[in-house]
Amino acid sequence: xxxxxxxxxxxxxxxxxxxxxxxxxxxxxxxxxxxxxxxxxxxxxxxxxxxxxxxxxxxxxxxxxxxxxxxxxxxxxxxxxxxxxxxxxxxxxxxxxxxxxxxxxxxxxxxxxxxxxxxxxxxxxxxxxxxxxxxxxxxxxxxxxxxxxxxxxxxxxxxxxxxxxxxxxxxxxxxxxxxxxxxxxxxxxxxxxxxxxxxxxxxxxxxxxxxxxxxxxxxxxxxxxxxxxxxxxxxxxxxxxxxxxxxxxxxxxxxxxxxxxxxxxxxxxxxxxxxxxxxxxxxxxxxxxxxxxxxxxxxxxxxxxxxxxxxxxxxxxxxxxxxxxxxxxxxxxxxxxxxxxxxxxxxxxxxxxxxxxxxxxxxxxxxxxxxxxxxxxxxxxxxxxxxxxxxxxxxxxxxxxxxxxxxxxxxxxxxxxxxxxxxxxxxxxxxxxxxxxxxxxxxxxxxxxxxxxxxxxxxxxxxxx
Length: 465
Prior knowledge:
Layout: H1 3-9, H2 18-44, E1 47-49, E2 61-69, E3 72-76, H3 84-95, E4 99-103, H4 109-121, E5 129-131, H5 136-145, E6 149-153, H6 156-167, E7 173-176, E8 181-185, H7 191-203, E9 213-218, H8 220-236, E10 240-241, H9 244-259, E11 263-264, H10 271-277, E12 279-280, E13 283-286, E14 303-308, H11 312-321, E15 324-325, E16 327-331, H12 334-341, E17 348-351, E18 368-369, E19 372-373, H13 378-383, E20 386-394, H14 409-421, H15 425-464
Parallel strand pairs: 3-4, 3-6, 4-5, 6-7, 8-9, 8-16, 9-14, 13-14, 16-17
Antiparallel strand pairs: 1-2, 2-20, 7-19, 10-12, 11-13, 15-18
Helix pairs in contact: 1-2, 2-3, 7-8, 9-10, 14-15
C-alpha cells in the first residue's frame, strides 16, 4: 500500500497538513474504487427490453442495450487534487474497459507516477494505463494522435483551448472546470454553523478548491451578524500560500474590488506579498456587488466576498446569472433551504454544509456554464466512459410495415394514435370507433375488389369461349 508515499508526495506549499491529503485525497479515492468494484458490473450490465412497456405496434421486437468502452481516454490532471480527481476518472475509464493516458499537471509528476504504480501493482496492465509528460505539448500531441474521450479538470480558459483542438476531430469531452461558489444564508440559519463552514472552506487545501465559498449572500441582518462571527475566526486563521498559477489573478481581482469600493474587513491584504511569495491571510471582502468582477471570478485562494440582498430570491438570481455554476451551499431550516436549492442552476447543492458531501462516491459531479459539462464519479460518471450500443431483433411474422398499403391505412393509424394516447376515456373510445370504422371500410373495399375481380374473370372466360 502506497498511502504513506502518496501522502508525502502530495505535500506542497499549499498543503502542508497530511490530514488534509488523507481526508481530501486518499479516503475519497479508496471509497470511489470500492464503489466501482462493488457496483460497476451492475451499472454497466447489458439491459434487455422485451414485451413489458413495448409499444403495441412493435409486437415481436426484442432489444438489448449494452455499454461499450469508448476506446482510449485522455485524462488531463489538475494540481490542486492530483490523486483524487484524476485517480477516480482513470479508475472509471478502466472499469468501463478503456485504456487511459494520464497527463499530470506541472509539479505533480512524482505523485502521479506513484499513483500509477499503485494501479499497476493492483493488476492494471501497463499498456492500459500510461503516464504522459506534464507539459502542454504532451496533451496536444496525444489529441493529435487520436483519443476517443478527453476528461479535463482545469480552468475554463484551458477548457476552451482543449475544446478547440477536439472540435477538429469531433472528439467528445468531459469538462470539469472552475467555480465561483456561493453560500446562501437564510434568515433562520445557524450562523455559528455557517461561520465554521466558511472558515473551513477558506482554509481547506489552502483555499485551492473549485467548490470553496467565494461568495456569501445574505440579507443585511444576517450578513452583519455573520460578519461578527467571522471576525473572531479569521483573526485565528492560519495564512496560506497561493499556488503560483493563481497568484496574479487573485491579486488583480482583489485590487480591482478594493478600488471599486469593497472593504478588506480584517485589513490583512498585502498585494506585494501575494505577488512575490504567494503568502496571504484568509480575506473577507465586504460591500461586493453582483456586477463586480470578483463576484464571478474563479479564484484559487482563501478569498470570499460578503454580498447583501434585500430578499433571498435575489440570491437565487445572482447564483443563476453567474457564468460559473459548479456548486452552491444553502444554510437554513431544511424545508426552506431545500426550496431554495431546487431553484439553483448549479451542478451540486449542499444544505447546511459545503465541500465534504461531494466526496460521496455514489454522486455524480459536474457543472453548468463556464464550470463545464458532463459528469465524473457515481453511476453517471461511469456510464459517461462508455457508449450505448443497441441490438434489436424481430421474432415471429408480425411486420405490419411490410404489408401493401391500403386506402384506409391513414384512418386506421389516426384511430390507433387516439386510442393509445388520448388524454381522456372519451377520446380513446373515439379512437377505437375510428379504427373499427376503418376496419369495416377495409372489408368493404376488399369485398368490392373481389367482386370486380370476379366480374373481370367471368368476362375473360366469355371472350375465350
